[in-house]
Structures are given as C-alpha cells and as structure tokens.
Design brief:
With 818 residues, this protein is α/β, with parallel strands linked by helices. Helix content is 49%, strand content 14%. The protein folds into three domains: 1-61 and 83-110, no CATH class; 62-77 and 112-237 and 249-463 and 805-812, Glycogen Phosphorylase B (Rossmann fold, 3-Layer(aba) Sandwich); 467-690 and 763-797, Glycogen Phosphorylase B (Rossmann fold), CATH 3.40.50.2000. The structure holds ligand 26W.
Amino acid sequence: MKTERFDKKLFKQEVLNNLKTQFRVELDNASQQQIYQAVAYALKEWIIEDWMDTQKTYEEKDPKILYYMSMEFLMGRALGNNLINMSMYGEVKEALDELGVDLNAVEDQEPDPALGNGGLGRLAACFLDSLATLGYAAYGCGIRYQYGMFKQKIKDGYQIEVPDEWLKNGNPFELKRPEYAKEVRFGGNIRTEYDEATGRTNFIQENYQSVMAVPFDYPIVGYGNHIVNTLRIWDAEAITDFQLDSFDKGEYDKAVEQKNLAKNIVEVLYPNDNHYEGKELRLKQQYFFVSASLQAAVAKYKKNHDDITKLYEKMTIQMNDTHPTVSVAELMRILMDEEGLGWDEAWEVTTKTCAYTNHTIMAEALEKWPIDLFSKLLPRVYQIVEEIDRRFVNKIREMYPGNEEKVKKMAILWDGQVRMAHMAIAAGYSVNGVAKLHTEILKNQELKDFYQMMPEKFNNKTNGITQRRFLMHGNPLLADWVTKKLGTDTWATDLSLMSGLKKYVDDPKAQKEFMDIKLQNKKRLAKYILEHNGVEVDPTSIFDVQVKRLHEYKRQLMNILHVMYLYNQLKKNPNMKFYPRTFIFGAKAAAGYLRAKQTIKLINSVADKVNNDASIKGKLKVVFIEDYRVSNAEWIFAAADVSEQISTASKEASGTGNMKFMLNGAPTLGTMDGANVEIVDEVGAENAFIFGMSSEEVINYENNGGYHPYEIYQNDKDIHEVLDQLVDGTYANGDPELYKDLYQSLLFGDTGSQADMYFILKDFRSYAEAQKKVEEAYRDTKGWAKMAMTNTAGCGKFSSDRTIQEYVDDIWHLDKIR
Ligand code: 26W
C-alpha cells in the first residue's frame, strides 16, 4: 500500500474508503469522529509497512533490546505526532483541505491517551519518541488501563473526577496480539518437590488464580527515519476452562473470581502522584505487567539464542521508579524455575540486566509493601525476595561488621515490609537520578548508605523532552521561524543547533518576529480559555503559567496567596503601577488528596472574585484551566510568558514542564530545584528569575528544626492579611471554615506534621520580589524579547534525544540501527 513518497490521491481515496467500509457513510454525512477514525486508519496503512520492516531489520541484525518497564505512559494524541514524525503533516493537511476537512478539527477528535499521572509517565512517552528517532531497538512495557487518568471537571470551583473512557470508540492505532498472550499467576501455595533426575528442587505453585495477559501493540514512529518501535501494553482476560454454569460450587466460585480478577486488574490507573497507598490491586497490576513482559522478553530471546546465561548481552531492563521493581525477583524466578539456572548464575544475569531510575525523594512516595500482602499474593516471588534480602544483609554485615544500624537502614525486608527501592538498588547495575541536584541529594542524603556501599552504580541522567511534540506540533509558528532563522530543520533531531539563534537575540527584527509569534499563540490560548472557561483574558497581558500536578511541594498555594496579595495591593491603590497580568493554573489533584483539592477550590474562588471586580479594570485575571492534559499543554507552553517552577528546593526531582516552557521562550520564575538549576546554567542567572531558599537551607531546617512560620505571620502585615483572608470568608462567601485547613497547615501544622512543611511563608517575600522583577523586565520590551529568545536558544541540552543518548552510552549500550 505504501509508496516511498506520499501519494495524496491514494491517501484521499483511502480515507473515503475507510468511511465506507468502517461506517457505511459518505464524507458528507460522516461525523467528525468517523472522519478521525478513517484518517487514522489510512495513516496506519503507511505506518504498518515501516513497522514490519523495522521488526524484520531487528530480527536480522539482532541488536540488544531495551525493555522500558513503566506503570505509566502518558502518550498524548498520536495522529498529529505520527504525521509529524513521518514528515506527512503538511501533505495530509493539504489532502484533507481538498476534501473540505480541517486536520486540526480531526486531531481534536482523538481522545488523549492518558495512561499516566504526570512527570514520570510523560517522560516515558518522550523517551519512546527519542528511542525510535535515534534508531534503538526498544519496547515500552506497560498496562492497557481501561480508564486512564480521570477527566477533570470544575463544578462550583471544585474538582470533579469523571472516568476517562479513552477506548470507547476503539483505538485505530492499536494492534491486538493474542499470539503473544502469557499466563500470570497469583496466590496459592508453593509445594517443593525434589527431582531425582536433575538433582534439583522444583517449586510448584498450587491453588493459584491466574489471568491471561494479552498484549496490544502501539507503533512508536521515529522522526524521519522509517523506524517504528513498539509500545506493548497488556490487557487481562479471564482464563476459564470451566463453565460459568458449572454445578460444582468450587469450580464456579473460582471461575467467577478469575473473571473478576481479570476485569479488575487493568480497570484503572491509580491517580496518585508521588503518594504511595498499599493497595493490593496495585501490587497485582505491577506483577501482572512485569511478569507478562518478562516472559515475553525471555521467550523472544530464546527464539534466536541458546545460552540463557548471556541474556544480558541482548536485553536490558530499565525500571521506571519502584513501580516495576518486582522485575528483579520475577526475572530470578523465570531464570531459576523455568530455565533451570542455579541461584548464582541467575543472580549474575539479573544483576547485569536490571537498572533502576529514581524519580522522587518524597518520603510518602516510597513503595513498601506489607510482607503479609506481598507473600500471600506472590508466594514464590516472595521466597526469592527473602533470599535476595538474606544475601544482601550478609553483604552489609561483611562490609560493616558489627554495624546493625546499617542493616536496619538498608535491608530489603524490614519492619514487616518489602522495601522495593532497596531491592532495586541491591540488584540493579545502575541507579540514576533525573537531574544533577536530585542525584546529588540521592547520593548524599536519601540513599547515602547505598551510595557509600556501591558508589559505582550511581549516576545522573538529567531528564529531557521531545521537541517534535512540544515545538513542531505544539508551536508550528515558532518551529517554522526557527527553521528559517537557522536555515535548516535539522534541529528536529539535534536540538543543540538551537544555540544558532543566539546571534539574533539583539536583532530588533528577529525580536519583533519572535514576540509576534508569542502573541499569536497567546491569542490562540485566549480563545481556548474563552471557549472553555468563559473568561476573557487580554493577550497583551503577561501570561504567567503554572501547570503541573497539584501537590503541596509544588506550592500552587504560594502562587495563589501571592495573587491574593497583589489583589489587596491593587484594591488599596487602584492607580499603582501594575502591568496587566493573567495568572494561569492547570492541575489535577489525586482524588483523595483533600488539601490539594482545597487549593483548587481556593484558586477558583480567587479567580471568581478577581475576574469580576470591575474596580481593578481587568488588570489582574486568574484562570484555572479545566482538565490539564497533554493536548492542551502543547498550546499552553506555546503561549506562556512566565514559567512558574516554584517547588520547595530539594523536592522536585527534575521537572520537565520547565524545559517545555523554556523551549517555547518562557523564562523560568523558580527556585534552585531539580532541573531549574541546569536551566539557569544554560541561560545564565540574568535570563531567569530565581528566588527562595536553597536545597541545603531547606534540608538544614528539616534536619535541625528552627523554622517558625507563625513569627513570619506576626511580623509581616501583608502575609498576615492574606492568611487572615483564608478564614474571614473573603473568598468563601463568608464561610470561615472552607479554607481553615489550609490556614492551619501553614501556621500550626497538624498531628504528625510541621507547620508550613513546604516553607511557603519563608519564601513568600523573595517570591514576591522576584515577581516584581518579572514585571519590570516585561516592561522593557526589547529586554524581554532578548530574554525569551535566549531561553529558546539555550534549550539544546534538554532534548530527550540527549538524555536517551546518555542512557545508551553509560547504561544500556544499545546498538544503533540505521
Ligand atoms: C506509588 C505512588 C507514586 C506514583 C507516582 C509514587 C511516585 C510517582 C512518580 C515517581 C511521581 C513522578 O511523576 N515524579 C516526577 O518524575 C518526573 C520525571 O522524572 C520528574 O521530572 C518530577 O520532578 C518528578 O516529580
């Protein structure tokens, strides 16, 4: 079907054909959704050819394969991205224009595949894009959740969670692969049996329940290279070799249980970000996709190789945070129980195969499974964990004789829990953080003991983002401008070329062009906001944006308190010097995270009041964008003037939104946290607005105490006023209770937690000052243009292509395919 060159006539024909064969409609009476499906299926025909060729090449060349194991892949829409990566976007747009169809409207019909929460899931998606683009053989391995990240509705200012039925209309891009289905077993007991013939002990799982894991493959299209990799996500089906109407009660119960297990296991993505809840179903999900993926990977290896002890030469496993770290024990199980290796051999293979990435230092994010639960659900795997722990503890004692403190701090099994990170570090051949500062904190604080014991394992891989989605697709005007200025479009695969823009930062004509594009993008977003929020915003005001998951450490609360402070000033002094400002928020709160939800309500209440107060003449607007997700994020980044990256220093491992803003020409207003530090390294402190405590200062307070927010409240009358407004009904229709918890948390803390744990009051003044500097800088039109352009020009380092190349060079050692 595919011709080397795009054939417009053929493409149009296919779209029309698909409408007929799929829906029995002509173009004229097809719905937008039907047209989307028809276009996507037409595109798939082109992709399939490359997909098959790629897989054939892999078969022939036998490269080492990466398995990127992740509970989350926050992919975002595929249609536009695939068109861009296949260099077909313009031509398909033209073809559709000729049919009287608007490609943008068609793209808008695709549900956002949102099989992820936030940073970690979106990073996985960017990595897949870069792996295919750079020509490395890789599988993403995950779960095909029936419901992805919930859709957020705002009602009366409150967040309402609505199920995300992303598969409702089917998914044109996916391919079911029942031929690769794998059985996954849970529970029961382990019977040991001595095998005279082999002289080995066999471990036999009995009375277990099982599900069939059935993979669905998604094409991951590389940019401009005809390479198509695979995201393999697993669905669950019941194994019922008995009848549901069986008269045998035991069989009947079991059949029903297994049906329920299959249904429940892939039902929904846990919407928690950075917060662990010891839910049994979550552990089931983890083992389910890990076991299926590893069984498939080992089977694939064995098809072409005889020596299982050389497995690590042909595959490597990257564990995306602790969520898939049961991989370590499961690989041991497969190697020993199914492939017949002894412990030492299996351990050697496993420890040369598995590597671990840490994405957070938040204590509440650490996964520690109760031993009870773990051992009941995964009896054989647990035996293996026990043995891994026993040997690891021996090693600790060997290295630190008599130092039981070390054992307590580092053992895998401790205090009735399985500490997943400890197992990953003990077994992994690489342990990496996701930004320089984060890795240093891991080495010197959080994982200090492990670092001292095994320093060779630790390394940093600063995160990155794909410029294909976040510039080419999200900001086509700027993308074209960059190409014109650089005289080449090869920045698409080599973002370091952006530094070539530096020579234009003082050029008045280039400055004007750049800021005109920003204005166009702000108008596009203003239109979206009007349509979705009913709020009119001024595209010439400063668009000051904070979009990310809602979490206390990210300090959206500090941002909105500062807005309240500005509003107080404006009210008292309506003629004060004030550059019009639009504060834009977008954030989902985990469904059970009350304080986060109160913060959303507060933002919306402030928005309500401020936006409707005629006395401030529209100088200040606040917008909460409903249902922040990958698709609207692309527009938001493109339209931002200011990038709010204001986490308490040391808490944000890296951040990746910060890089997307930078790419799109928005300077960072932030703390010296995560990758902000490296952004400042690249652009220079004069092209960012940095404020607040350093990570050392924060950690010092945390370790030694001495922080008293109440004193700040007493001594700073502006802060005092703002905090009092939380409990005097100003933003709560007179209800003093509504924000009482927020107020209390800042001044008094609650049981078990410090007051103002994230140092909002401590950093407030320096934040307000930095905000003042933003305003001054923005008044200087030329200076601002220069600063914005310097950010775009300086973003080269933050391509996920660079990140992936570093993983390949230092950790994975993959073979490049051409
Ligand atoms: C078990 C609950 C849970 C769920 C998600 C714990 C932890 C997570 C993730 C690790 C949270 C996450 O997305 N972390 C983010 O990872 C990004 C990619 O490395 C970083 O840029 C962010 O700073 C980090 O918060």
